[in-house]
Specification:
Belongs to the helicase family. UvrD subfamily. Keywords: ATP-binding, DNA damage, DNA repair, DNA-binding, Helicase, Hydrolase, Isomerase, Nucleotide-binding. It catalyses: ATP + H2O = ADP + phosphate + H(+); Couples ATP hydrolysis with the unwinding of duplex DNA by translocating in the 3'-5' direction. Its EC number is 5.6.2.4. It is a single chain. With about 750 residues, the protein is α/β, with parallel strands linked by helices. The protein has five domains: about 170 residues, Rossmann fold, CATH 3.40.50; about 80 residues; about 160 residues, 3-Layer(aba) Sandwich (Rossmann fold); about 100 residues, no CATH class; about 80 residues, DNA polymerase, domain 1, CATH 1.10.150.80. Helix content is about 45%, strand content about 10%. The protein has a seven-stranded parallel beta sheet with strand order 13-14-12-15-16-11-17, covered by helices on one side. Helix 23 links the parallel strand 15 and strand 16. Helix 6 crosses helix 9 and helix 25 packs across helix 26. It starts with 16 loop residues before the first helix and ends in a 16-residue tail after the last helix.
Length: about 750
């Protein structure tokens, strides 16, 4: 999904320092050679900033200009730090520290705490939510899960902006921040939370930065010790630095100028966490003699995708917009972006799933396709649609690859086989490395053909298949490599969190997609109120939403689809409008227009009979009649209520015993198919069946969530259960392929 994992081939380590520079474009080469003094790299999306950074460090190390142990490269996620370590290793620059701000600070805090404070460092609180809930309870407030998440986020924001509880209400007013509760109440919860931590001798992740800053400020001897160890600093994604992180960086660097920062103000999308592009935009002011290099050659996306991205930013306003980079695609022409309007969200999801299935059939790997949305709650309808279409998917933000149970088991098995060598009967007849790996992993669930559908069984297979592909690439790059060599490679990759690609369509929020890329990207739910989000009130908040859409667009290499639905549910009022950000860009739209005449290309598909340019016309859909509550008669718009055919508050006549039997049957059916339970029927659908107690196929098929497809697969069992008949076992029919 990233530039690092798009290919799992293993490049040969460059033989000489100059060979490290081979293949860099003129601007990237300028970055790599700028090894002294302050350096600021303004790097647009897809312009190879990580490549430029890692080759810069590797060239300095290989040429003897930089000592590996004195270089500290910091970024914002473990994945990004792992990718950087993996690339440096491939370039022959081992020994360089590549860490997140928190990881680097924690190591220093653990080392210096006994000397600076005495005793052991307080225990690190892995998750602060439970303690925040307790703090709220002590303030006589009971928060639901969503409120708890929002309040926790507010506390994190306050701490990274170095705002103490007493100053929080004033800070909210000054920044026009949309607080989830009354600021005075939040300040009270924040203060109580801090007191609870002190009482229990625990610290949170923000405290790691705060305490490290405190020690370095108060103990000049410790600060000089750190500056003596690290003499050259590289900061990636510098537009995301918070005031607290900048303060820590200043203390690390001291009065020296061996600092290289890389960023793009147009990709500032984390202001809610305290991130600000001001440090990037003001770098030249703080360092008048800095070398500034701009990377604008886009190697990721086609001219059509880049054209739309540039057009979107041409309408932007504000300080970040004044420093926008005009990207220039270096790729061959590709298909135009496709714009599609749908009547309702379920139809949008179903059509998106069909298009994805068509792309996979045309040869695009599932792992190179992504569906991106504004908020995580939008994922459920796409999970259901992809499951119904038999398309495997993975949720971004799930468990790390090397921490998955099946990957750990596979590693143990491969180590055992490597130790046993030819004494392991599993390896009989397996002459090459890839064959040996396939033989070992076949005992853990890998087969030559993937299991049908999605779910836990498919997820496990995909993890093992990724290891098989890794072994094939490793052997191709290193002929004669042994199982022992591969195990060593896996250990190094696990330490660096440099995971291979897992095949499955990615479902992710736009925020979670930052730093990733795919061949095909579907941007869905692009309506006013969702993009920009409803609570974006100020001009700057709206501009950040525009930048978020820009990040989504620039994730696509070749295929880009943008869609929206006019209503939430079938039969609902079609009162939604497509996002204002596409005005003047999508064909047929008017509005903001563009500076410099930059506009978007491509066709527009209304999703109900009007075809995109160059595409097969969509199937004409009949308007759906309003769905009314069968108890009170009110028109229903909520998807869950529509499945029940009644308002949530209207009385239920559900047969509880029947619901229990259906629930148990669903679990058995899902286990047999290797799918999540909801892929058989959602709980709302089970409740609707238990309320209606259908006795015929006609009565069953009209229940929302059933339909003809599931009627043919599960109808016989469901009707038998409703009739009180015993079911011998779950149907063994696999997921359909239509």
């Amino acid at each position: 999904m990233t530039a690092a994992t798009h290919s799992t081939l293993f490049p040969q380590v460059p033989e000489t320092p100059d060979a490290v520079l081979d293949g860099l474009d003129p601007e990237q080469r300028e970055v790599a050679l700028a090894l002294h003094g302050p350096v600021c790299v303004l790097a647009g999306a897809g312009t190879g900033k990580t490549r430029a950074l890692t080759h810069r460090i590797a060239y300095g190390v290989r040429a003897g200009i930089l000592q590996p142990a004195t270089v500290l490269a910091v970024t914002f996620t473990n994945r990004a730090a792992g990718e950087m370590r993996g690339r440096l290793r491939q370039l022959g620059a081992t020994g360089v520290q590549a860490r997140t701000f928190h990881s680097a600070a924690l190591r220093q805090l653990q080392y210096f705490w006994p000397k600076a404070v005495g005793g052991e460092l307080p225990r690190l609180l892995e998750r602060k939510v439970q303690l925040v809930a307790e703090a709220a309870a002590r303030c006589e407030l009971r928060l639901d899960r969503n409120e708890l998440r929002d309040v926790t986020g507010e506390i994190e924001w306050a701490k990274v902006t170095q705002t103490v509880p007493a100053d929080y209400p004033a800070a909210v007013a000054k920044t026009q921040r949309d607080a989830p509760r009354d600021p005075a109440v939040l300040a009270q919860i924040y203060s109580t939370y801090e007191q609870l931590k002190r009482d229990r001798s625990v610290i949170d992740f923000e405290d790691v930065l705060l305490l490290t800053v405190g020690i370095l400020q108060d103990r000049n001897d410790i600060a000089e010790h750190v500056r003596g160890q690290y003499q050259h600093f590289v900061v990636d994604e510098y537009q995301d630095v918070s005031p607290l992180q900048q303060r820590l960086l200043d203390l690390w660097v001291g009065d020296r100028d061996d600092l290289c920062v890389v960023g793009d103000a147009s990709q500032t999308i984390y202001s809610f966490t305290g991130a600000t592009p001001d440090h990037l935009l003001n770098f030249r002011t703080r360092h008048p003699g800095a070398t500034v290099v701009k990377l604008v050659r886009d190697y990721r996306s086609t001219p059509q995708v880049v054209h739309l991205a540039n057009g979107l930013l041409s309408q932007a306003h504000g300080k970040a917009a004044d420093h926008r980079l005009e990207l220039v695609s270096q790729r061959d022409k590709g298909p135009e972006p496709v714009y599609t309007e749908y009547g309702d969200e379920p139809t949008e999801a179903e059509s998106t799933a069909r298009r994805i299935r068509d792309l996979i059939a045309a040869g695009v790997p599932a792992g190179e396709i992504a569906v991106l949305y504004r908020v995580n709650s939008q994922s459920e309808v796409y999970e259901q649609a992809l499951a119904d279409a038999g398309v495997p998917y993975q949720l971004r933000g799930a468990e790390r690859f090397f921490e998955r149970a099946e990957v750990r088991e596979a590693g143990t098995a491969l180590r055992g086989a490597a130790r046993a060598g030819r004494n392991d009967s599993l390896l009989d007849g397996a002459e090459d490395l890839a064959s040996q790996v396939r033989a070992v992993l076949s005992t853990k669930g890998w087969t030559g053909r993937p299991p049908a559908g999605s779910g836990a069984v498919r997820d496990r297979w995909e993890s093992l298949a990724a290891l098989v592909r890794l072994a094939e690439d490793f052997e191709a790059a290193k002929p004669g490599a042994t199982l022992t060599d591969l195990v060593r490679e896996l250990d190094e990759r696990a330490a660096a969190q440099h995971a291979p690609t897992v095949q499955g369509v990615t479902l992710a929020s736009l925020h979670a997609a930052k730093g990733l890329e795919w061949d095909a990207v579907f941007l869905v739910g692009l309506t006013e109120g969702m993009m920009p989000i409803a609570y974006a009130k100020t001009d700057e908040q709206v501009e950040e939403e525009r930048r978020l859409l820009y990040v989504g667009i620039t994730r696509a290499r070749i295929h880009l689809s943008l869609s929206w639905a006019l209503s939430r549910s079938p039969g609902g009022r079609a009162n939604r409008r497509p996002t204002r950000f596409l005005n003047g860009l999508r064909p047929g739209s008017t509005g903001a227009g563009t500076r410099g005449g930059v506009g978007g290309g491509g066709g527009i598909d209304r999703g109900a009979g009007r075809a995109a340019v160059g595409r097969t016309p969509a199937v004409e859909r009949r308007p759906r009649s309003p769905v009314r509550c069968r108890v009170c008669g009110r028109t229903l718009t909520d998807a869950g209520e529509m499945k029940l055919m009644r308002c949530e508050e209207c009385p239920s006549d559900m047969d509880e015993a029947l619901y229990g039997r259906l629930y148990d049957w669903r679990a058995a059916q899902a286990a047999l198919l290797g799918q999540p339970d909801f892929c058989v029927f959602t709980e709302k659908t089970l409740m609707a069946i238990a309320e209606a107690v259908p006795s015929t196929e006609g009565e069953l098929v009209v229940i929302a969530g059933v339909g003809n497809r599931k009627l043919s697969r599960f109808g016989t069992d469901v009707l038998a259960i409703c009739a009180g008949e015993a079911i011998d076992g779950a149907s063994e029919e696999g997921p359909d392929e239509t």
